[in-house]
# Entry
Amino acid sequence: MSVNHDRRRVLSGLAVATAFSILSPFARSAGIDYPFTLGVASGDPLPDGFVIWTRLAPLFNAADGRGGLSRAVSVRWKVASDAAMMRVVRQGEVIASERFAHSVHVEVAGLEAGRPYWYQFEGLGAQSPVGQSRTAPAVHAMACAQLGFVSCSHWERGYFSAYRHLAAERPDLVFFLGDYIYDSSYAADSGKIVRPHGSGNALSLVDYRNRYALYKTDPDLQALHAAAPSVVTWDDHEVQNDYANQWSQDPNIPVASFLKQRAAAYQAFYEHMPLRASSLPRGPDMRIYRRLDYGRLARFHVLDGRQYRSEQPCILANRSHKGHIAANTCADLRDPRRTMLGWEQEAWLDQGFAESRAQWNVIAQDLLVAPLTQRDLTNHKPGRWTDGWDGYMANRERMLASIARRKVNNPVFWGGDIHSFWVNDLHANGGDLDSPVVATEFVGTSVTSDGPPFDAFSAILPLNPHVKFFDSRQRGYVSVALEEKNMLTHLRVISDPRDPNASVSTLKSFVVEPGRAGAIAV
Ligand code: FE
Ligand code: CA
# Structure
């Protein structure tokens, strides 16, 4: 694909045109198109800095996964205290190497706490769009924050208007909770494709790179990343549907070859996300669970629900790891030797709860946490979805017990994966609805992916009285205004994922008050 001038115009209109220009964006090196086709991003803010990201790819879908480049490229970066990039406060030069697909991850430090900054890259004779970021508040500051979270953006199912409307809210920080890309593609005759991936299921490093690159060309996605720093974690589709640790959902794929696929997928994730060097992939392993403190207002505990988990419980005779509804009587569901987070991450989370002095403790992760009694679609017997937290009940009980034992201030869980909104009470003893409510849960709907059937899920709500709200009929995102004494959460919906100009509205809003777990509809 050649340079998309229209898209660039949209982006430079969104960012602020640079007032001085050492290198004109049009003074290209001979034969090389505009390299910043994938936009810019920033993330993981600290009080004195953040990561800035870009990836140079003049041909984003080059068949060899190299983005149209064949050698290392020198890239200049700068951070300014004004949107016009006049007052540059930090700058430098890095080498974008082939090893990580000419991606750039600069950990900027030495900045002032709790304020906006702007950043821009230059390379191959061109300038990137300008992105806006923001440092975290000072350690002891009690600030306010405008936040958002999103999940499940399947390119083929529509346009990312949810991202555009969230960007327009000018959030301070945005959380991506998984299924940022989909590894899998719909069949051409499925009737599902609004815009095609143009390639099949991702397996190799080239496949994953080009899938991320395709998604990164989306102007709404670029607008959101350019508008605010982000914090990213993953779910399954960054690798493969319903994978667990080293196991493919397909029992015919040996562990060794699945780990090669996981290594490729994790590397491509790193290459396309504003992550710190602490998340550099090492073979099939990559550390993405981490904490971010937002002054005294909030501590964000960001979890990895995929890399370290035990196999799904109650595995069927065909050995498939694909999630299914297992009978409530399956003992595996409650086996205390099984873990969702892995033992190290469980201990790390318990420690993070113990040490937190924040007013709010947000657990940002991929899945629905609340127990959910469902019905087997064939025999209608009550059961549990094995791929989610219901398949790892003992871990859930340990986590909620840790919250109670550590007297964690105002714990609120955020999640995705289920392509629908859920607002839930989380009880101390997961399955025991007579035990006290210890935490609040908000699950966001998908950006585009299909929701579960509304009528079938509405029918199980009487079995699940801890569910305060459910809706699966619309796509969207969640925005959160966080203050010391109040958390105001809006469930936002877009008019139609098939419409690139979809409008936005608020489906429902909820308040959480300090000292009182559970959301209140407003
Ligand atoms: Fe999804
Ligand atoms: Ca998922």
User: Anything to note?
Assistant: The pocket of fe (iii) ion (ligand 1) is lined by residues 152, 179, 237, 417, 419, 449 (CB under 6 Å). Residues 478 and 491 are 5 Å apart (CA to CA). The longest strand covers residues 504-513. The two ends are 48 Å apart (CA to CA).
